[in-house]
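Worked Example 4.2. Consider the chain below.
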Amino acid sequence: MRVFGLVCIGVAALTFVVQAQQNTWSVFSVGPALPLGSTAAPTLGPPGASKDLGTGWNGAWTFFGLPFSKSGDALAGLGFGGSLSYSRWVRDSTLSETVFMGTQAIVRYYIPPVIKPFDLFVQVGGGMLIGEHGFTDPDTLSLNSQPTSVLVTKGVINPGASFNIGIDWDVLEITPAVTAAFTKGKTSAWFSIDAAMKL
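Applying the procedure from the previous section yields the following structure tokens:
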């Protein structure tokens, strides 16, 4: 795990060093995030009670460089970089939040133009997603009883991965994505449709 994290940091640093002034892009995105699979978790209340997560939201800052953009061949659309993300859901029966903060190394590839003026791309990423608990872990707080003290749970570092496809039009992007955090016991995965601005 530590080696993988160092590789992620190295790829991101290399991107900045090689492309510090030109052919480097930042993308700010936000959109709804829909959990995939079962999210039912035990919650405080009647014995056997459980509730699902509703739709949450996902926000990210993605940066990448296109080191081969002037080569004029198939490598011209290949980019490397990183992504910092924040994803959040609230279980409808409680005040408990499910949050993942992530850092990933990414590889993005722009497909040669098919429908001008739009650019299509695919993006894959891998890295770490930090969260207190996964989608199916028991809830920790109930609306019916106020806690007497602040509950602090140490964040757990989970390996994670993402796959995006997207359409780029000038400075705007629409990017459907599937992200998975390999949490202990069961994977927490979600689908998001992010609207983004590229600078």
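The helical segments are 2-18. Confidence is low (pLDDT under 50) at residues 17-21. Compare this with Example 4.1 before moving on.
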